[in-house]
Amino acid sequence: MDIFLLAIIGANILISYKGFNDLSFFRKNEFHIGSIRAGEQFRMVSSGFLHGDWAHLFFNMFSLYMFGPEVIDSFGPLSFILIYFVSLVAGSLLTLSFHNNDINYRAVGASGAVTGIVYSAILLHPDMSLYLYFIPIPIPGYIFGIGYLLYSIYGMKAQNDNIGHVAHFGGAIGGYTTTLIKEPNMFVDNTFMVVVLAIPIVLLYILAKSDKL
């Protein structure tokens, strides 16, 4: 596995572990609208390395572990890093846009960055499949990617955790757009998947923006 991927996974684990055991550290680095509006923009990145609990951390890192190598194999490690952080920031910006007037809104998680990598990997390898030990049959990668977004509908409805669900959409947009900019031939060579992956982004963005979720 590429050293850059291992470094990002390691950073997420170490920083999240620190946050699990140090509430002051967690509060100083989480995504918090009031603090960001007061000038602490670093939270838009630092919050992407914190997680709500071990399950949240595992799910994000498992997804990154499964899809990250596909992006690295196609674009190389530096472009992988670029897509990861573009998606992370895009997720934070969209969250800031949606919750700008809620100064008490808080969230954490690498969901935006990971969703961007998932979307990029699926665009690059639309025929990829996942083999999960608890499911005896392969799962098409695009099904996982769309499901990853749909999961955030529940989270946005429930509003009962500290996970940045809106960041899923921003991250998807970041990964989707950056990959297409780097590989514009996909509009012709992979039109079906380009359209399929755009549908949940557009639909769920509209629903969220209209406050129907």
Automatic annotation (TrEMBL):
GO terms for biological process: proteolysis. InterPro entries: Peptidase_S54_rhomboid_dom (IPR022764), Rhomboid-like_sf (IPR035952), Rhomboid_protease_S54 (IPR050925). It is found in: Membrane. GO terms for cellular component: membrane. Keywords: Hydrolase, Membrane, Protease, Transmembrane, Transmembrane helix. One of its GO terms (molecular function) is serine-type endopeptidase activity. Residues 39-181 form the Peptidase S54 rhomboid domain. The keyword Hydrolase applies. Its main location: membrane. Gene3D superfamilies: Rhomboid-like (1.20.1540.10). It is a multi-pass membrane protein. The chain crosses the membrane at residues 75-96, 103-124, 130-151, 163-181, 187-208. This is Rhomboid family intramembrane serine protease. It comes from Flavobacterium amnicola.
